[in-house]
Each structure stands twice: as C-alpha cells, then as structure tokens.
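Discussion board: Methods & Data

I've been asked by a reviewer to show the raw model output for two of the constructs in my manuscript, not just the figures. I'm not sure how much to include, so I'm pasting the format here to get opinions. Each protein appears as its amino acid sequence followed by a line of discrete structure tokens. Is this the kind of thing reviewers expect to see in a supplement, or should I convert it first? Here is construct A:
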Amino acid sequence: MSMKTPAAESFGEITKLIEAARQKAFQAVNTVLIDLYWHVGKIISHKVKSAEWGDGVVAQLAAHIAQTQPGLRGFTRRNLFRMRQFYETYQGDEKVSALLTQLSWTNNLIILSQSKRQEEREFYLRRAVQEKWSSRELERQIKAALFERIILTPPKVSPLVTQTHPAALSVFKDAYLVEFLGLSDGHAESDLHQALLKQLKDFLIELGRDFCFVGSEYPLQVGGRENCLVAIELKVGRFEPEYLGKLAFYLEALDRDIRKPHEHPALGVLLCASKDNEVVEYALSRTLSPALIAEYQTQLPDKKLLREKLHEFYLQSTPEEKGEL
C-alpha cells in the first residue's frame, strides 16, 4: 500500500503542468498541420482554376508525395481534394479563420462534409471549439440537427431570466436529447432519474461544457459565464403550469440556504417529456421566478424534416435575419 507523504500531496501540481504542456504541444502541432493543409489546398485550387493543372495532376501529386516522402500519411488523392475544398470553402471568411486551427482535421472534415449552409458551418465550428467536442460527439450533434433546433426553437424562458441571466439564452436549449439512456416508452420519473445518474457524463455533455455535477437530487452548477446554481426538475409527462409553483419553492430555498454571496440567483429548469408551446408562453409570462421549460427527447429527431422547416424559415426571413446565429 502506498503511503501519502507531504511531498506526494504536491505532486499533483507537477502533473498538471505536464498535462498543460502536452495540450499546448498538441495544439501547436495541430495549428501547423491545419495551416499546411490550408496552403496545400490553396496551391491546388489556384493551379486547377487557372487550368495549369487538370484533376489528373492531383493524383500524380499524391503519388509523388508517397514516393518522395515514404511513411507520410494524409496526402492521398482524396485528402488533397479535401484540402482544396477546405480552402475554397473558407477563403476570405475572417469570422471563422481563427476557429479552424483550434479543431482537429477530422472535426474540420466532419463539419465541412455534413453542413449545408455557411451559417451552419460557422455554428458547429464555434460550438465544437467552445464545448471541446470529440469527433464522436460532433457527429452526434450534427445527426441530432442541433443547428436546426437552435434556430427553429429557441429556449423558452421567463422574463426574469432574460433580465438577470441573459447569457442563459445561449447556454440552454429548448430540447435535450437523451437517446443514450435507452428509456422505454412507459418509463417513470425514478427510471429517468436513475438512468441520468448512470449516464451522467453523457448527460453533462448534452447540457454543455458550462455545467458540472454537484449531487443527486441537488442542483447543477453553471460555471464560467453566470456562476449560479441550476435546479433541474424532471417530469415524465406533459408540462403543466402548476409545476412552476413547486420549482419556485425550490429556487427560493436554494437562494436562502445554499447560494453563496458571489453567485447569481438560482435558475430553474423544468425538463418535461412534452409541452404545448402556447401553454408554456402563458405560464412563463407572469411567473416571477427565473425559470426555463424544456423537453427531453428519447429519440433522435427527423433531420430531413427539420432541414425542410429551416429552409422555409430562411425563405421567410429578411436578409438581415439570415446572417444571425
């Protein structure tokens, strides 16, 4: 059995420095790599557009690199064309240029190949950097049509949330996907609660990077932006207006007994299986509590249908609105 000495207790500081240095080294290498791919794509793009090269020359380039740089990976014909597409897609787009080098080449390719609109690409670039998504989680969020859902259904919040926690509008969602829980159709609140605890890591990823877990049947804490406690009340049925009264009671107890002096007033989230948006609007308009009402969904949404709705949304929007995220 290893004994903890006073010196051993300070070892964590050194291991943190090592980990931080490793992360910096990884980011530095990634920045150089993405920059290299960008410039290779730029050269290929200019050569092809000027008719100096035909598409067949790219295959010759791939063969030349394989012969002169044995063991070097990532420069196949297919990947060289991706570098060209990468450059042509983002050239002149100063809003996202700084984001590209903060993501791996794999994540950049996922966004490039699976996003249809410029606004969608920018959205996922920013979210992937902010949330530090893995490639697996990025693909999950795109498959779950996060962009379409955020644009079409912004979070439902009470007026007090808008006044006291404006940043909450960019943190919370109108619906949360919990398909990873594997819940049956007739699940109870206890089933939902226990499943969330068992799959806590996945649930926190779905909530967003601003959240950390405090304890079971206890609030979640938002850090970084608002630094406040968040009480999440689970309901396996449809939202009912009287739920807000109970949530207000919880929030008052948190603010009086648990909230620290430097923290903002607590926020409340009612997470229901379904909701009528008109009922939600009426209920939230007069409540004096900082509350949000959202759905949890046990199955991935129909991405094709959401894309069609988003297309209709953009057709009806003014040019100014189209550029907003």
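Construct B, same format:
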Amino acid sequence: MTLRALDAHLLAQRTSPELTGVRRFAIEFFYFGIKEARACLFVVLFFAAVFITPRAGIFGVPRYDLLLLVAIVIQASMVWARLETLDELKAVCLFHVVGFALEVFKTSSGIHSWTYPDFGYTKLFGVPLFSGFMYAAVGSYVIQAWRLLDLRILHHPPLWMAIVVAILIYANFFTHHYIGEDYRWYIAACVLGLYARSTVIFTPYDRERRMPLLLGFVLTGFFIWLAENISTFFGIWRYPNQIGAWATVHVGKWSSWSLLVIMTFTIVANLKHIKSKIHIPE
C-alpha cells in the first residue's frame, strides 16, 4: 500500500454505530496509533537515519553531512508525493531557520549549553545544518497530525495573543542567559491562563473525541524529550553533564520542549487552510 493509498484509507468517512465497548475502544486506539505514526513520518525516517549512520560516516562522508542529505531527500520526497503542500513547506522551512538560530546561540562559546563534537563539512558557526531539521520535524508532525486527525480547536485565544506568547517563549531561550532569571514558569503561567478553555477535537476513527489543548502540548513535549534522550545516547549532540558518560537529559527540558511545541503550534495555526478550523471566541 502506498502512502497516498494509506492516507486515503485513514481519511475516509466512516459510520460504525455497531461498534461499542471494548471493541470500539480497541479500534479507535488502533487507528489513533496508525495516524500518529503516519504523522511522524519525517521524524521516524530522520531518526532512523540517525540510529543507523555510523559515527565515522560512510565512504569518507561525515555523519553530520549524511544526515543533512537524508533530511533534504525526505523533505523533498514529501513535497513531491504531495504529502505536504508548498505553504506547509514554507512553514517547515521557518521552523528550520528558527531552530538553527537557537542552536547557533546555545552552542556558542559564551553559552555552551551543548555541543556537536563530530566533524562535518556542513557545520556553520559550529552547528551542523541538519540540526534545523530536528525542529522542522516537530512542525512537520503537527501539520500532518492536523490533517490526518481532522483537528479542530475550540476556544482558541486571539491569534495576536498567541503570537505574542510564542515570541516571548522564543525570546526567553536567549534572554535568560543575560537577564539572570529564567522566566519560563512565568510564561507557562500565562500559557495556562491563555489556553485554559482551549479544546482540541480529533477524529481517530469515525467519532470526534476531545481533550484539553494544554494536555496535547505537554504530551508532545514529553515524546520530544524522549527522542532527545535517544539522540544524546547516540552522541548526535551532548550536554555538559554527558561529556564523560551518557546521562539522562534533565527532566526540566520537558517543559522547554512543551513551550517550544506551543510556538510551533502557533506558526502552524497561521496557515490559511488551518485557520478555518480554529474557533476564536469574540
């Protein structure tokens, strides 16, 4: 089955009133898992490359350069196969730029939050260009999940407020190194108030289900934190406490990723075909 055929099957309209109880739960849970896995296509393919590419590279090509090539091929293939539109590609490219800028700052000599220890021809300011695709992968997941699960948002805050909060989230990643205080939890409190009533409606099989939008942000941030642990274990990058021997990424990073998901979500919410599925109370 091709991906286009799989998408057509997953997006097909269904009515199955005869499904009840445990059987309904099992089928809905199964289809939800399939849709989530399909939405993670970019993530799965990219991190598969991370795991199987030897640290020494292949045929003299450094690992970081190979990962950049793989990421470009995956992204180009998704557009060519019409799994992503050109507008969605623009959003993914924005995630790449935003993420790469953050990487350059965080790995700079004055900050040194983490490092990329291996050699690569495509390293710029000490950061391999493929790193931006790790942020783009999050954006790609949100875009794909929105389509496959037919997401709708109720009681979303005014877009200008969401944009202001997204800017504050991004700025705090930079400013707390100079101001001397991390305002993450103050921003999180603002997010809690702003999105307290927001509900995401999704369709795993044939019926709409609901959950708080904030819970979606937290869960997505958790799975990114798990992926970060796997990536540092394979030595793609390292935090200072992982130089001698690998250690679990601090759980505090979970909150950072959850906030970054909110920023990503805000960018996606401004795509034309998605705005129509967001309800903003007047």
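Answer (T.O., handling editor elsewhere):
This is acceptable in a supplement if you add a one-line summary per construct. For B, something like: DSSP finds eleven helices and five strands in the chain.
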